[in-house]
Amino acid sequence: MANRPTSFVQNGLMRLRPGARIAALADGAGVESLDSPRPSPHLARYGIAAQEDDGVALARIALGGEPVLIAAQDGEFLRGSVGVRHGEALRELFVRARRERPAGVVLLAASGGVRLHEANGSELALARALAAMLDLRASGVPVVIVGVGDVFGGASVLAAAADRLALLEGVRIGASGPRVIESVHGRWELDASDPEDVDQVFGAAARARDGFAELLVDDVDAIRAWILFALRNPTLFRTWIKSTHARHARKLGHAAPRPLLPPALRCFADAKKDDAAGTLWRAREAWLIAPFTGLSLGAAEAHAIDAALLRNFAALNRPAQPALVVVEDSAGHAVSRAEEMRFVSGFLALHAATLALLRAAGCRLTGLLAGTGHSAAFFANAMQCPTLLAFERARVVAMEPSALSRVTGIDPQAMIESDPLLGHPVRHFAAQGGIAAFVGDVPLADIVTLGEAWHRASAA
Fold first, then answer.
1. According to the model, what pLDDT value does residue 314 have?
2. Do the first three CATH levels of 18-234 and 240-459 match, i.e. the same topology?
3. pLDDT digits (tens, 9 = 90+) for 263-297
4. What pLDDT is recorded for position 10?
C-alpha cells in the first residue's frame, strides 16, 4: 500500500486484505483458492517473520460469468516486495492460465518490486514471471492489472506489460522510487518529502494524464466493470506492441539514444551495425543486441532497440527465424526525473514484450551476460531470453549496496562478494539457476550453437 495516509472508500478495495479484494470482485461467493504454503526461507536471518503466502494470494473466480485467474499482492508485507516464492507463484499462475485458457488473468498490484533481502533469486523469479506473462499474452489470453497500492521497480515493468493497466486514485508507479532519485541527483531534482512533487511524477493522475495508465476510483463496481470491459475487448499482442511503440515515439519527441561504441567482443568481429545508434548488429550466424557498457538503459535506448528489431523482424511468419543474441552489460536502467516523467517502466516493458513477440514467432533467443547485469535493464533485456550464458567475470547487481543497506538494515559490504543471495559475482546468480552455462570470449557461432543446445535440452 501507499506509504502515506489514505482515505479509504467504504465500497473500495484499498481497505481490504488481498484475499478479501479477490472475493469482492468475484461473482457471488465462488472463490477457489490456488494458494499453497510458500513462506520465504530467507527472511529469518533479517529477524523478519515469513508470511505463509509470501505476500501474494492466488485464486480462480467467476467474473461476469466467465472463469478468471486472479492474484492480489499484499502491500503491507515488506511493501509487497516480490520474493523468490512470490515470483514463482506469479509465474505458475501465468503458466496455468496458458494451459487452462481462462477469459483472462487479473493482477491486483501493490509492490515495491524485487525483494532486496533475496536479491538474486527474487530478480530471477520476477523476470521469469514477466516472461511467462508475456508468453501468455502472445498466446491470446489477456492480462489486465489494477494498481491498488504503490507499484515500483520490476513490478512497475510487469504492470506496464499488461494488456491494460489501471491505477486507483492515490497510487504511485515508477521504476525508481522518489528517494532513489533524490539520493542520486539531489533534492533540487525531486523532493521525496514533498507529496505534491512526488505525485507530479509518479501519481496515478499524472500517469493517466500522460496516457500511461487509466485512472479508476476505488469502488468495487467500477473496478469490476473496467476489468470486464478490458477482458472482453482485448487487443492482439502484435497490434498492442505496434501501437504502444508509436505512442512511445510521440512521447520521446526529439530525444535520441546515445550512440554506442563498437563492442570489443569476438562475437561482434564479423558483425555490421544495422542502426545509427549501434544498438542492433547483423552477422551471418545471428543478429546481436549490443551491450551498453558503462551506460544506463533509458527510454530512448530501449525504443531504439525495439525500432530496429521490429523493422528487421517484421516478416515474423517466415519459415526459418534467425537467431538473436542479447549481449548484456550496462550501468542499469536510467534513473532521473526526466526518465520517470517518460515512464521508463513502460519502455522497458515494451522491450520485454518485443522479445516475447520474437520468441512466439520462433526466433531463437540467447542472452549473453558479458559484463554487468544491473537492475531493471538486465531484468527486461537478457533475462527475457530462454537461455542465458555468462562470462565468469560477469556481475549481477539487483541494487547498489547503499540501497541494500537501507532496505535490509544490514551492512552488505562483506556480503557483496560472498553471499549467495546478495553477492554480485555471477556465480551466485548461477547458483540460483539463472545461468545455463559459462563461456569465454568466443566467436558468435559458438554462442549460437551452445545457446540453442541448452534451449533444446530445457524444452525436452
1. 67
2. yes
3. 999 999 999 999 999 999 999 999 999 999 999 99
4. 72
Give whole-number Cα distances, 60 to 72, 136, 351, in Å: 12, 17, 30
Q: Give the 3-state secondary structure of residue 22.
A: helix
Question: What is the pLDDT confidence band of residue 1, given thresholds at 50, 70 and 90?
Answer: very low
Q: Decide: 327 and 368 in contact? Cβ < 8 Å.
A: yes
Contact 160, 345 (CB under 8 A): yes
The CATH superfamily assigned to 240-459 is 2-enoyl-CoA Hydratase; Chain A, domain 1 (3.90.226.10)
409: left (phi over 0), alpha (psi -120 to 50) or beta: left
Helix, strand, or coil (residue 311): helix
Say what the pLDDT of residue 456 is: 80
Does the pTM of the predicted model rise above 0.90? yes
The 3-class SS string of 197-266 reads: HHHHHHEHHHHHHCCCCEEECCCHHHHHHHHHHHHHCCCCHHHHHHHHHHHHHHHHCCCCCCCCCCCCCH
Grid coordinates belonging to 404: 541494500
β-bridge partners, 327: 368
* pLDDT above 70 for 316: no
**Amino acid residing at 390:** A
To 10 degrees, what angle do helices 18-25 and 220-232 make? 70
Going through 290-331 in order, the beta strands assigned E by DSSP cover 323-328
The fold of the 18-234 domain, in CATH, is 2-enoyl-CoA Hydratase; Chain A, domain 1 (3.90.226)
Domain boundaries, the chain: 18-234, 240-459
Distance CA 277, CA 261 (A): 9
Please give the torsion angle defined by the CA atoms of residues 43, 407, 174 and 249, in that order, rounded to the nearest 10 degrees: -100
Amino acid at the residue 85? R
CB 234 within 8 A of CB 102: no
Q: What is the pLDDT of residues 102-159, one digit of tens each?
A: 999 999 999 999 999 999 999 999 999 999 999 999 999 999 999 999 999 999 999 9
Q: Name the grid cell of 159.
A: 504492470
Q: What is the pLDDT of residues 401-412, one digit of tens each?
A: 777 777 777 776
Q: Which residues contact 189 (CB under 8 A, 6 or more apart)?
A: 181, 182, 336, 337
Chain Cα centroid distance, residue 326: 17
To which residue does cell 543486441 refer?
289
